[in-house]
Amino acid sequence: MPEKRPQDPHRNGTGLRFETMDHGGAYSDAMPQAIKLIDAEGRSCIYVPISQDGRVVDSLGYAFDPEDAE
């Protein structure tokens, strides 16, 4: 529900915090594989990269089509 999601009412980032989580992946770098966003009220969500068959892939910027899942 929207009221339970992290919010930025002033749209300027005030009160938002970001935490990097898992690091690593297929390459030996320090790229985080998950980022946690926390708002001023303590609500949070975790962003993870899109993966397919266990490998991170580029989303190509398109929406999920339920017919592709069949």
User: How many domains comprise the coordinates?
Assistant: 1
Helix coverage percent of residues? under 10%
Give the SSE order as H and E letters: EEEEE
The coarse silhouette is: flat
Uncertain runs are none
Strand content: 15-25%
What's the alpha carbon Rg, rounded to whole Å?
15 Å
Which structural category do the helix and sheet elements fall into? mainly beta
N- to C-terminal separation?
Answer: 27 Å
Walk across the major sheet and give the strand order: 1-2-3
Integer average pLDDT: 79
**Main pleated sheet:** 3 strands, antiparallel
Number of helices: 0
Count all strands and give the number: 5
Please describe what this structure looks like:
By secondary structure, the chain is mainly β. The protein has one domain (1-58). The protein contains no helices and five strands. A three-stranded antiparallel sheet has the order 1-2-3, with no helix packed on it. A two-stranded antiparallel ribbon has the order 4-5. The protein is flat and about 35 Å long.
Which terms summarize this structure?
single chain; 70 residues; mainly beta; 3-stranded antiparallel β-sheet; two-stranded antiparallel sheet; 5 strands; flat
